[in-house]
Every structure is written in structure tokens, then in C-alpha cells.
Amino acid sequence: MVGESSSNVDSLKSSNKKSKDVYIAVQLSIVIVFLAIMSKFFVIINAGERGVMMQFGQVQDQVLGEGIHVIVPIVDTVKKLSVRVQKQESSAEASSKDLQDVFTDVALNWHIIPEEANAIFQQIGDEKQVVDCIIAPAVEEVLKAVMAKYTAEEIITKRGEVKAEVDNFLTLRLVTYHIAVDDISLVHVHFSERFSDAVEAKQIAEQEAKKGEFLALKAAKEAEAKVNLAKGEAEVQRLLRNNLTPELLQRQAIEKWNGKLPLIVGDGGKNLLDVKKLLNSGN
């Protein structure tokens, strides 16, 4: 009897525990279902996003900002769009004013205008559709239009001007689609291999021409220097001839005389030169 009573008690405790576990599980289920139902009445818009409010699929004028918002389930639905700056890289081929092929790699920073998120979703769609349908074609078209205004050489030498014009045209083009341009970079601009070879040949020719001009100028300067030197020497000789008088020659001879009488060799043998006679003959 005692064993049977103990078994009944254990069975009762086990049954109570199972009932308690079931009760807790049911409570948790009710809470989860309640929270799930309540979550349908709220929507959270995260940082850098905007919510497009729709009633039965119709886009409303109201744009939901960051934070928590109350909505009516089934009636209201919200589409979240990012309004942060996004980067789009693309490549485009165009022709310059002088009909050279121009290949350009472009990096565009853009974002959806927050206040117009509902309009862009209604007219275009989400971010992917914006890139595919609007941004990529606009970049290609603007690049073709701008590059056609410059020669290939100008595209290189006036790169800042070309970039500013592309930026301006693209900004005006995309703002009509509720897209703001933050910055655009012409990452890489290159031409056909044939044109690159022609540019290199032209640079070599210009360098050779400049070298030839330098050598010609150098030769002209050297010739001019020689002419001036010759003129200077001729002028010195002229001045010497004009200033050399018998008295000056006689004095220079005396100043350079070392005191030794010169010998004159003739038929009569060696004779001494009479200095007095030499001086008197000068007078």
C-alpha cells in the first residue's frame, strides 16, 4: 500500500509539472501572437531611410521619416528606400569633336532626395531600378554630348573643364527624376591605340623640333659672339695703329732694352750699334 501511494504521488507531481509547462508554453505563444499582431500596427524607419506610405497600393503624399510610425494593417503598406549617398561606377564610349574614340570610366555619387522618395518610387521604383533605368543611361548620354564638344587633345588638357560640364549637365538631368548628384569623377579617360601612337609620335616630333631650334639658336649665338670678338680685336688694332707714334715706339724700345748693345754682322765683321746715332736718327 505504501509503495502504491508513493507511485500515485509521483505520478501526480509529473502531471502537474506537465500541465505547468503547457500553461507556460500557451502563455508564450499568446504573447508572441500578440506581439506579431501588434507589430503590424507599427513600422520602424531606420537611419538613412525614408518610408513610402501606400494605402491599398496607392502611393500617398506622406513620406515617413526615421523612427517608429503607426499604420493600419492590410490598409497601409510601407516601402523603405535608402536616401544615403550611393556610388555607381560605369563605363561609356563616346566620340570627340575630331572624331576620336573616347573611353571613359565614371564614378558617380548620388542619393535620392528624401522629400521626394514617394515620387521616385511611384514613377521609377526602388534603388536598382533607379540605377538601371535612369542613372546609367543618363551618364552615357551626358558623356557623349560633352565629349563631342571637345577635341581629343582638349579632353586631356582641359580635363577639369570637361568634368565640370559633365557634372553640371548630369545634375540638371537627374534632378528631374528626384535624384541629387553629390559628385562625379572621371576616373580614367583613354583613347584608341592608334590615337595614342599618333600622340606619342607628335610629342617626339615636337621635342625634336624644339631641340633643332635650340641648336640653331646656340649656333647663331656662337657666331654672333665670334663676330663681336673679331670686331673687338679689329678695333683694338685700329686704336693701336692710330696711337703708335715714332716717339712712343722709341720710348717702348728704350724701356724694353736690357742694356746690352746689339751686334751687327756685315761684310766688315762684327760692329757695335751706336745707340746715340740710333736715337738721333729718330729725331
Radius of gyration computed on alpha carbons: 52 Å
Domains, number: 4
The class by helix and strand makeup works out as: alpha+beta
CATH class of the largest domain: Alpha Beta
Strand element count: 10
| Low confidence ranges | none
Q: What strand order characterises the main sheet?
A: 3-2-5
Distance between the termini: 182 Å
Continuous helix count: 8
The shape is elongated
Largest sheet: 3 strands, antiparallel
List the helices and strands and how they pair.
Blueprint: H1 2-39, E1 42-45, E2 49-55, E3 58-64, E4 67-70, E5 76-82, E6 86-95, E7 101-112, H2 117-123, H3 127-147, H4 152-157, H5 159-175, E8 179-191, H6 193-243, H7 246-256, E9 263-266, E10 269-272, H8 275-282
Helix pairs in contact: 3-5
What does this protein look like?
The protein has helices at residues 2-39, 117-123, 127-147, 152-157, 159-175, 193-243, 246-256, 275-282, and strands at residues 42-45, 49-55, 58-64, 67-70, 76-82, 86-95, 101-112, 179-191, 263-266, 269-272. The termini are far apart. It contains eight helices and ten strands. It folds into four domains: 42-82, no CATH class; 86-191, Tetrahydropterin Synthase, Chain A, CATH 3.30.479.30; 199-243; 246-282, no CATH class. It is an alpha+beta fold and 283 residues long. 56% of the residues lie in helices and 25% in strands. It is elongated, with a radius of gyration of 52 Å.
